[in-house]
Amino acid sequence: MAYLLKGVSILGAEPTDLFIKDGVISSDKAGKDAEVIDASGLVALPGLVDVHTHLREPGREDAETVETGSRAAALGGYTAVCAMANTSPVADTAGVVEQVWRLGREAGLVDVQPIGAVTVGLAGKQMAELGAMATSAANVRIFSDDGFCVADPKLMRRALEYVKAFDGVIAQHAEEPRLTEGAQMHEGEVSTRLGLTGWPAVAEEAIIARDVLLAEHVGSRLHVCHVSTAGSVEVLRQAKARGVRVTAEVTPHHLLLTDELAAGYDPVFKVNPPLRTRSDVEALRQALLDGIIDVVATDHAPHAVQDKECEWAYARPGMLGLETALPIVLSVFGEQWDLIADRMSIAPARIAGLAGHGGDLTKAGTPANLTLVDPKARWVVDPGGLASRSRNTPYAGLTLPGRIVATFLRGEATVLDGKAVK
Amino acid sequence: MIKHLRSAADLDAATATLILDTAAEMAALSGREVKKLPALRGRTVVNLFYEDSTRTRISFEAAAKRLSADVINFSAKGSSVSKGESLKDTALTLQAMGADAVVIRHSASGAPHRLANWVDGSVVNAGDGTHEHPTQALLDAYTMRSRLGRLDGLKVAIVGDVLHSRVARSNVLLLTTLGAQVTLVGPPTLIPLDVAAALSEKTQVSYDLDAVLPDSDVVMMLRVQTERMQDSYFPSAREYSRRYGLDMLRMRKLPEHAIVMHPGPMNRGMEIAPEVADSPRSTIVEQVANGVSVRMAVLYLLLGGK
Amino acid sequence: MAQPRADAPSKIILAGSDLHRVVDRIAHQILEKTSGATGTVLLGIPTRGVPLAHRLAARIHAFEGVEVPVGSLDITLYRDDLRLKATRALGKTELPPGGVDGLRVILVDDVLFSGRSVRAALDALQELGRPSSVQLAVLVDRGHRQLPIRADYVGKNIPTALSESVKVALTEVDGADEVKLIGGLT
């Protein structure tokens, strides 16, 4: 199938026609036999890449599957997502990562790139067979125990060193577990008022500080998941200034929401790391602008209804993110298309080693992984209207700017007219 | 009148005072031979207790029965709750049974807030996790007012494990609403972060009990669980008791008129010496009796009208 | 029951010394009917029944030198219309030190209307003891009884329409002594 996108604005530039043929951007502007799409007023972005997605399969198919999560991703403008390892069974062997990778191919809506666990069963005791996962069909490059921190400093050092052999990267969930026992929300004024056990910012900052020193010491790459505090930003700023090979992500929810939302005890606002304060939100926004934080990652975490319709303490942490990430970023930063393309597509593709994503749409021959956004459209988030199998969005009822009109994966439409093609 | 009593923050000064005044009338009526009043005839009050607390449950039960309400006790043990039924499903069951009020005790902070989303009736918080226990604060305020004649300008020291205490949170909110000056006293490990900003800007914090006592009208000792030692909040029971326990020697530092309170159950010898607990300054037994009157007032004001 | 509007026309029925004379008359009637008010307790029904009871006791003392114990009897918790209105604040219930057992209790209220308040008062009184007999004194009887209840002492009978209301003001509560008829046709 060939497409001619008429009058499209690439990253906000003057309108032009974009011809997609044989899976790539074509220089042939004639567009014969192509399906013509009126793209006037629409902005083309390289397909978004999420380095932090929970697809829940295998194990919790009642919350999400690779297929439903892929559909949600495509509708959110994504062409690639990295699937976290905390499934059941854990993605700590070549067998499990290949299963997830294959399910992604079968769904065919986005490239599903599995992340491998750092330790067996995410238990933090014994290193998983990272090399086997790297050389499997899934070609794993990111390893993470996300959900848990690789807290043992010796194990963390070894993992950082070990993955150098195949250009891997450890993505750390930075949370000193002894400082967050029983933690329910950000430790501060609101947790004191609500009587919920606090999750202190220092528990994140201490691990990031330790890990950048370890990465520096062994000369390895480190990626920091879901940075949530102003203090973490300062640690990263110093590390980057020293030349440490560290990258970091921030979630859309940490760029927008604060701990005050816990006041009604609705667990839809329970997430790990927790929502922080207004000043943390401001620091994270500035860090993303400055490039101290490299990427926006969704930490899309679907949960079944019963895991959220309960007492706060019993609820599982996490929020949906794939279908709202771009609108949230647009609402926070406005139409800064170069920034958005870099932080949501180009940089994450680079970190995840996903060649073919985050390419230059003005160049002929670039793989046609792209998404079309209507920046003027406004829509109201309706949890029931989302493609994810779960409903735990914290943005229900919110009016957001920016609607995904179409998404293309290697030249094939996965979304057209705002609807998934399959 | 308010619909729910989930937090002492639900009460403004006028409403809190109305509850205390009503409790005083209830106390006068309850003192008489026949203790049943017809005000809540035909109303159903459910005691939904996920935590063992015979004292609080009996107090609410007595209060509801003296107002002629029908009382259903729904305790976590031996019910569908222990079979893993969710709070929401339990709430829908109570709703179907026509509960006009649900008195809930739960180990999870905020459980009463969640429950209020799922039932039409009033929700009364009888203690939720480490959050609040508003009727305890009301009975404490009632006790202070009846012993000392006022609350406005009263200096109240709350001593001990404030961090984990729902009694302390509710008392800070209610007492400051009613004009009292609260000082929280304890080791820094047990005083929560940003407590003044979180609860009331007027709240003060001190780590030195001896310095606070001479200027206190009320000293309220909180229960300190010895398990806290394992979690490094303080080194030993002995050291805690030496620094923050109320013994006879320390009690003498209090002004002549000052009273000693404790929400119970007490750790005698830990936060409070037996001679102090049994002294005439102690209001511990009165607090229990006042609990019924205050809970009658709350139930009447929530359920008595349209 | 329909209430007249706030701006409805009103008419003063009793004021100042007229009202005092009416209270005096009730006090005399009590003395007459109770053989000198011995063994008698006056229980005022809050709000305005309480100061009325005190006035009656004072007049009885002035006329015959008899000390009649006075108390108050709150009926809120015994009302049959609790659920029809927003929650009401409680009034005071205070019995004189001698209680009511074996004594003649005279309930005192400002206005007798449907009789429902008196019914509630009888229920409340029953919980407090066992009087030898119960009587009722009211400043105004405006008719329209809904229960088989009759006053033993009436200051003034005021025929009214249901659309009208009777408002008693007493110095102790309202700063003036006055009985007003509000609403209806004048």
TrEMBL record, chain B:
Residues of the Aspartate/ornithine carbamoyltransferase carbamoyl-P binding domain: 3-145
Biological pathway: Pyrimidine metabolism; UMP biosynthesis via de novo pathway; (S)-dihydroorotate from bicarbonate: step 2/3
Binding positions for L-aspartate per the UniProt entry: 83, 166, 223
One Pfam family of this chain: OTCace_N
NCBIfam families tied to this protein: asp_carb_tr (TIGR00670), PRK00856.1 (NF002032)
Record's function text: Catalyzes the condensation of carbamoyl phosphate and aspartate to form carbamoyl aspartate and inorganic phosphate, the committed step in the de novo pyrimidine nucleotide biosynthesis pathway.
Subunit structure and binding partners: Heterododecamer (2C3:3R2) of six catalytic PyrB chains organized as two trimers (C3), and six regulatory PyrI chains organized as three dimers (R2).
This protein's name: Aspartate carbamoyltransferase
Species assigned in the record: Actinoplanes aureus
Gene of this entry: pyrB
Automatic annotation (TrEMBL), chain C:
Keyword annotations of the record: Glycosyltransferase, Transcription, Transcription regulation, Transferase
Pfam families xref list: Pribosyltran
CDD domains: PRTases_typeI (cd06223)
GO biological process, one term: regulation of DNA-templated transcription
Family the UniProt entry places it in: Belongs to the purine/pyrimidine phosphoribosyltransferase family. PyrR subfamily.
Function summary: Also displays a weak uracil phosphoribosyltransferase activity which is not physiologically significant.
Name of the protein in question: Bifunctional protein PyrR
Source organism (scientific name): Actinoplanes aureus
Taxonomic placement: Bacteria, Bacillati, Actinomycetota, Actinomycetes, Micromonosporales
